[in-house]
Amino acid sequence: ANAVQAADADEVKIGFIVKKPEQAWFINEQSAATELGEQEGFEVVRLAGEDGQKVLSAIDNLHSQGAQGFVICPPDVRLGPAIMNRAKQYNMKVVTVDDQFIGSDGKPLADVPHLGMSSYKIGQQVGQAIAEEAKRRGWNLEEVAALRISNNELPTAKARTDGATEVLLQAGLPEANVFDSPQQNTDTGSGFAAATPVLSKNSAFEHWVIYAINEESVLGGVRASEQYGLNADQVIGVGVNGSGAAFAEFSRDKPTGFYGTVAVSSTAHGRESAQNLYQWITTDTKPPANTETSGKLMTRDNWQQVRQELGL
Amino acid sequence: MSAQKSTDSALLTDTSCGSTSNDGEASTSERRRGLPKALRTLLDTSGLIAVFVLLFAALSLFVPDFLTGRNIVGLLLSVTLIGTIATTMMMVLALGEVDLSVASIVAFAGVVAAMVTSSTGSVAIGVLVGVVAAGAVGAFNGLVVARFGVNSLIATLAAMEFIRGLAYITSGGDAVMITEPGFFDLGSASFLGLTLPVWVMLASFVIFGVLLNQTAFGRNVLATGGNAEASRLAGVNVRRLKIIVFTLQGVVAGIAGILLTSRMGLGDPNTSMGLELAVISACVLGGVSLSGGVASITGVVIGVLIMGCVQNAMGLLNVPTFYQYLVRGGILLLAVLFDRWKQSRR
Amino acid sequence: MSAQKSTDSALLTDTSCGSTSNDGEASTSERRRGLPKALRTLLDTSGLIAVFVLLFAALSLFVPDFLTGRNIVGLLLSVTLIGTIATTMMMVLALGEVDLSVASIVAFAGVVAAMVTSSTGSVAIGVLVGVVAAGAVGAFNGLVVARFGVNSLIATLAAMEFIRGLAYITSGGDAVMITEPGFFDLGSASFLGLTLPVWVMLASFVIFGVLLNQTAFGRNVLATGGNAEASRLAGVNVRRLKIIVFTLQGVVAGIAGILLTSRMGLGDPNTSMGLELAVISACVLGGVSLSGGVASITGVVIGVLIMGCVQNAMGLLNVPTFYQYLVRGGILLLAVLFDRWKQSRR
Amino acid sequence: MDNAYLRVEGITVEFPGVCALDNISFSANTGEVHALMGENGAGKSTLLKVLSGVNRPSSGALWINDERHVFTNARQALAQGVAIIYQELTLAPNLSVAENLMLGQLPAHAGFIDRRALQLRAMQILKELGEENMNPATKVRELSIGQQQMIEIGRALLRNARIIAFDEPTSSLSIQEIRHLKRIVKRLRDEGRVVLYVTHRMEEVFEMCDAVTVFRDGQHICTHTTMEGLDQDTLVSEMVGRRIEDVYGYRLRPQGEVLLDVDALAGPGVRAPVSFNVRRGEVFGLFGLVGAGRSELMRLVCGADKPATGTVRLDGKVQHFASPGEAIRAGIAMCPEDRKSQGIFPVASVADNLNISCRRFFKRFGFLRNPSREVSNANDYIKQLSIKTPHHRTPISSLSGGNQQKVIIARWLSEEIEVFVMDEPTRGIDVGARRDIYTLLYDLTEHGKSVVVISSDLAEISSICDRIGVMRDGQLVDIVNRDEATPERLLGLALPA
Ligand SMILES: Nc1ncnc2c1ncn2[C@@H]1O[C@H](COP(=O)(O)OP(=O)(O)OP(=O)(O)O)[C@@H](O)[C@H]1O
Ligand SMILES: Nc1ncnc2c1ncn2[C@@H]1O[C@H](COP(=O)(O)OP(=O)(O)OP(=O)(O)O)[C@@H](O)[C@H]1O
Ligand SMILES: [Mg+2]
Ligand SMILES: [Mg+2]
After folding, report:
1. Which residues share a beta bridge with A179?
2. Which of A117, A286, D272, D344 has the most C-beta neighbours closer than 10 Å?
3. Separation of D13 CA from ligand 1 center, angstroms?
4. Is B158 within 8 Å of C332 when comparing Cβ atoms?
């Protein structure tokens, strides 16, 4: 069957399933893949899979359309076995992007090609950026408080904040100075609401660092810090992604507590993962098991340049 | 003489008396009198059925790959969760209540079943505990609503938060992996080309259809939804009725949740957010009144299918996500507008 | 004899005649008679107020840093969105309707205002267009509900999907940046230590409190919520009333959304998911009846404050997220149970 | 007396601010129709609700067949053979006639409804009710109020109860239906049941009842164990605490020019064009059987429904009312017949119910209302119409039916209304209050207003009106002058030819 499909190269159709179809990140990925498809002559079906049920429906749907494979960012990494099960049933090829499948033994499913950045490592990059900036500003980390806007329902969020926390602790931030503020959502509003009580509780600290799952949440924290009369030079907020929220912040007249963000090229992710799958279908060359990408720190000074570099 | 009077008034009722407007109408509805009950009900709900048939025909015609065996099977599978739960939601709505906690129950039951199965090694025990837990949540909802007279929207909104929290706490926030291979069979066991979840959905359609129409219980539910005071005075145990219906809702949501978990291979505490609104939409699309007392299983089946078909077709047509919002909102609005129009024309 | 009789009966009326049961009660209610109206209303809703006062005292006592000036300011700011919208939601609920589309309107208005401001360079035009767009959505909801008699739960559920989709489409799915610095002042302009969003919330409390209680419009809203048909026959233009109330809801949600956008510095189409349920919860906590006809602004203020305090305290106490779900659900349930208990005891 | 089948002993029921029943005792025997009489709010319905387990007495008990009972829910009462036909309809609107008849005891095998048995028993009971032409499969919401009332009665018959209580059953029945009801009541008595019968209609008491108990303000006034030697005036004065010679008290009034002129009006419910006019100072009656289309006609006049053809002139000016609101502001208002669904705002206070329309006259600064004016207006009418309510702030739903009606009437008295349309204004209203309402009508007309009264009460309509229009099957068949309006004539016109 594979050979037949491979021969039929001009009718290649692949799916691109993402867990949060409304988010800029995934929109970028999907449109980059679509663009590539237009260049290379294959069709990309964009689908949403917000939970397991919807992912399976999306796969059924792809099967009905006669797609040969799909790229997926799963809503839960542990869905791997169920998704692979369904894909095998339909004889579809699968590559994952952003989040890698985990098998029932708790280890990554090695035979599914993956392209992405490790959430934990991204988190470490965030921590690194914060630590360096704090050092540059000459802060004594012993007296710095960390506002960790957490969202433990989301494994990605947890991995990112854990990564950042680890680096900061190594850099000399006392563990007692790390304050959790659980948010209900991942938007600015909930970041703000979560940060408010923590800031008011710990009024003794002069310097704050803020990190979270994404830029929006960090921005919420920064807004809360402004509300408490903390100045831009008293706060270092570093986000993740490189989306409109960050650009909006950087293009303000005056610098704010939002120091920077670890930008990852969603465009590259979308493009490369689609490319990999296309190659696999047409030439039968299986992509590398795990391609790790990394982020690039984007600050007020270099954001436009980085943005261009990453094609955002 | 008295006989004369009543026939007259019966005529009046039918022909919406007088003026020349709609004599054709009247005679149609009179002709309907002669038809067997089932067919008459069909004609009454026929507006909706017509919409569905038209929609289905249009989709089959214009959407490539829509009318293929594998797509229809996939479509059926994709509506199992909504479809199964819609049957008991219909009962709850018929009672004049509403249940927002179903999505949380789905998640909770799934997590509990997955954990218990993994720890005891027995699928049966796992499923049983999951269903019982879900039923207990439903019974609790029923108790709060029936015993303390709390508005069900609020009671189940509270339960929605609470049970979701319990699901997170039980699972530690992470999806629970299932180690027992037997558990997967639940979701994939197949018979006549359809898998267990589809059969369960079809069974619920039949069971709750019969329950609603053919049993005293179902009629009491409708009576209570139409006028709770009336059924209480007529000796219906309204309190028990409500508790039973909410418990059934819990049990069915639990079963649906466990089947989902089995299909997914993991108990995910984050699953099915927003499901309650989709289920209620499907019921209302199917002509179930939110103020209670009016419900039909045919309507609910059609409502579920309409929603499923539209969603499926949008996937096939590659409609961008954002426009899917517009389409979903638009369809819902058009369907209820159509329903209103149909009723006002009568 | 007859005179004797009627004084007797007046006495009877007050002291709930005879038996020894509740003389204390009776005399309290008699004492209340003498009090001015406002104070009496206060005592009537006093159950809830007592709960709030106790809660506030407990939090101040046991939660470190709760009762500090800046925490209270922060608390106020964090409830502005819910508080502002709760005032018009109160009107909608009083009318016997419900509006699920507020969260989408918040996002939509914010995105529109941000885009228009950036493209025209004028904050005034941006805000105006945002508010008008939001008002138009509200008016459309009102039209569908009032003109076509569609159940508002479904009509606004459809609008919720539709408008969220519009917000995504308008913004392209990504946060909209604001290039006009003047726009940020809206959210941060401060007077007497409180920022504009807080003042807007306080103003809505006053305006809609007065509107509900002190104007014929407000009383007509309550009457319509109590019995729409009777209200129409009593000469109320029910249709216009509903359209106006939904439009107000849209306008206020729009203003709240624009202020949020200004505070956050970006127009985010993803913002405020689930806000509608929080707003409705706050109203119901405040004793607003979901079946219409009963509402009080004091109750709503208290409801908003209870929710805000609990959320804030959980933050201060560092309650893990999962348990926050339990607490929120539990509080909501306890509050309505308490309310029922209070009413049954009366 | 002590071996009576039903004994009520020392029952006391309290509501916030009201003592509905104060230590009531009386007894009723089998084979007896026992009338319960009293003013509005005297506590009659409350007593029946104690019998049916809806209201729990704070003290006292019921003795049924020498067994002591205090019911706490409706099922217990039904189990002891007590069935009540309530004043407010208690039907499930979307269920069929048959299902409503047997609600709570649907015939079933292992839970499954036995449709045949359901159908058969329903047909049988409908026959007993004289409604053999009613289709048992019809949805109850499609029936007229009178027919719905018959379903209620049928339900009680089906229970085969030993004690059957009727709460104002005739208030919304047609004349044939009333005849039928009387036959049913007699049969029940002859079968040896206890029949309790609440009514405000004197003639029914004297025609049907064997004993009468009178309440006033929650107190037991007296029980007459026999109707021998009892006359109407005595009974009335026991009920209302004063003597009323002539309830109707017709007064001759001068009549002015035509105020309301209806010309060839037709529309939903009114199939042939109807023309009539009403003069200033006139009380114009509309008589007909239930379902004759009287309400529908006046709804067209008052802007509640849209007429298909015809015009309405008010004081010579042609009016096209798009809504009741426009009609009210032009000076014509209607008190609807179905108080519960069209009249009251149940959760709102008496004052709010009363001021709903007129408060636009009491404005401050052009947009704020004037609560003190509203309160004084409410209190004025509470006093003037002797509305029994603990307070103007009491929710109207806790008032007795008659008092609710008075509040609705007061709503329009405080407006600037020229033409009052009153649809069954005295339905469920006690003699004393009725007298008050009639006096009120005469007072209004003496001040140059016009009144249109729709009534199914023959005695009432022929006694208080100056002219009477008779309707049948959505047509106005004739207009009769007062002096020619004998009950026989009116009935002859109203009944189908
Ligand atoms: N649910 C209630 N809550 C408070 N008060 C009530 C309630 N039900 C009845 N009442 C009061 O109890 C008293 C007796 O009412 P009831 O309905 O028994 O009068 P009734 O004799 O049946 O009058 P009517 O002839 O008008 O029907 C009235 O004053 C009424 O206001
Ligand atoms: N809900 C309804 N559905 C269908 N027909 C109805 C409905 N309500 C009333 N009708 C019909 O409309 C006509 C007039 O109704 P209605 O009983 O109100 O007349 P009426 O003369 O005002 O009598 P009354 O005032 O004594 O009740 C009747 O033929 C009746 O059957
Ligand atoms: Mg009564
Ligand atoms: Mg009528």
Report:
1. A147
2. D344
3. 10
4. yes
In the block, tokens 């189940």 appear at B156
Overall residue count recorded for chain A in this entry? 312
Tokens at B238, concatenated:
């309204």
- Rounded distance, CA C93 to CA C300, Å? 11
C-beta D292 within 6 A of ligand 2: yes
B abuts A (3+ Cβ pairs < 8 Å): yes
Q: Does D54 touch chain B (CB under 8 A)?
A: yes
Domains of chain B as residue ranges with CATH: 44-58+67-345 (1.10.3470)
Q: Do chains D and C have 3 or more beta-carbon pairs under 8 angstroms?
A: yes
| pLDDT, mean of residues D196-201 | 90
The ranges of chain C with pLDDT < 70 are 1-46, 343-346
Would you call D211 helix, strand, or coil by DSSP? Answer: strand
Per residue in B126-168, pLDDT tens?
A: 999 999 999 999 999 999 999 988 888 889 989 999 999 999 9
User: Which tokens hold the place of A75?
Assistant: 């809503």
Place of tokens 């004609």: B43
pLDDT tens, D109-123? 888 888 888 999 999
Selected residues 342-371 of chain D with any CB under 8 Å from a CB in chain B: none
pLDDT at C15: 32
Residues in contact with C315: Cβ distance below 8 Å, sequence separation at least 6, in sequence order: A181, A182, A193, A194, A196, A197, A198, A201
Give the C-alpha separation, A75 to B270, whole Å.
9
A177 to chain C, any CB pair closer than 8 A? The answer is no
Q: Give the list of residues 6+ apart from residue B268 with CB closer than 8 angstroms, or none.
A: A51, A52, A76, A78, A79, B107, B110, B111, B175, B176, B261
Nearest-CA neighbor of D176 among B3, A67, A302? B3
Question: What's the CA-to-centroid distance between B239 and ligand 3, angstroms?
Answer: 26
Segment D366-387 mean pLDDT: 87
Cβ <8 Å between C336 and B160: no
D22: three-class secondary structure by DSSP: strand
This prediction has a pTM of: 0.84
Q: What are phi and psi of B9, to 5 degrees?
A: -70, -30
Domain boundaries, chain D: 6-240, 258-494
**Ligand 1, residues D54, D398, D406, D427: which to mutate, most atoms within 8 A of Cβ?**
D398
Do the domains D6-240 and D258-494 sit in the same CATH topology, yes or no? yes
> Smallest Cα–Cα separation from D367: which of B321, C200, C215?
C215
Per-residue pLDDT, averaged over D19-23, amounts to 89
Q: State pLDDT tens for residues D147-191.
A: 888 888 888 888 888 899 998 888 778 777 888 889 889 988 998
Ligand nearest D297 Cα, by number? 2
Residue position matching structure tokens 């007592």: C50
Q: Is the pLDDT of residue B48 over 60?
A: yes
Interface B:C, Cβ pairs < 8 A: 133
Distance CA B93, CA B158 (A): 18
Task: Give the closest-approach CA distance of D201 to chain B in angstroms.
Answer: 24
Query: Does D6-240 carry CATH code 3.40.50.300?
Result: yes
Residue type, B345: R
Report the residue of chain B nearest C323, measured CA to CA.
Answer: B165
Going by CA atoms, what residue is nearest to atom 6 of ligand 1? D398
**Contact flag B9-D132 (C-beta cutoff 8 Å):** no
Give me the residue from C9, C216, C346 closest to D16, CB to CB.
C346
D443 close to ligand 2 (CB < 6 Angstrom):
no
Q: What fold is seen in the domain D258-494? A: Rossmann fold (3.40.50)
Candidate from B153, B284, B325 with C-beta closest to C162: B325
pLDDT digits (tens, 9 = 90+) for A70-102: 999 988 888 888 888 889 988 999 999 988 888
From chain C, pick out residues whose CB is under 8 angstroms from the CB of B336: 150-151, 154-155, 158
- Measured in angstroms, how far is the CA atom of residue D166 from the centroid of ligand 2? 23
